[in-house]
Write a structure and sequence with these properties.
rod-shaped; mainly alpha
Length: 141
């Protein structure tokens, strides 16, 4: 004895709704925070590089562990300072990192918005189906 088709559709709709809820409220928010911090970090270093050159970049990089409270930013500072010596053009690298982080943050934000819209559509369809079902049951009485 298998599941009725109605039951399978209801389970699928609930699972899609649950996935959208988890993504929109937990995963996307955390990912946007991470890429936001990354964008802020590399943009700050890019401004320091554009204004002060390599010397300004090193000064700003040295200030980060003492002035910022984010552990992610401290980790990024350590990784970048280790990589800095091997970079031929830090300005191009920083511009590329800023652009990639911004694009990823925008993509995640748009995906979150799409998940929210999908949840609203599913909720609206459930309301319509339930109201149609209650009208049919009233007419049959």
């Amino acid at each position: 004895m298998g599941f009725p088709r109605n039951r399978i559709i209801k389970i699928a709709v609930v699972l899609v709704f649950l996935c959208c809820t988890l993504f929109a409220n937990f995963f996307a928010v955390r990912m946007m925070f991470r890429y936001g911090v990354e964008t802020y970090f590399y943009d700050k270093l890019l401004v320091a590089y554009n204004i002060g050159g390599a010397k300004g970049l090193k000064i700003e990089l040295g200030k980060i562990p003492f002035t910022d409270k984010s552990p992610l930013e401290s980790k990024l500072a350590k990784d970048f300072s280790a990589r800095l010596e091997s970079l031929t053009d830090p300005g191009a690298f920083l511009k590329d990192k800023v652009q990639k982080s911004r694009k990823t943050a925008y993509f995640i934000r748009n995906s979150r918005s799409a998940a929210i819209v999908l949840m609203i559509v599913i909720f609206g369809l459930q309301l319509i189906v339930n109201s149609l079902g209650s009208l049919k049951s009233r007419k049959s009485l």
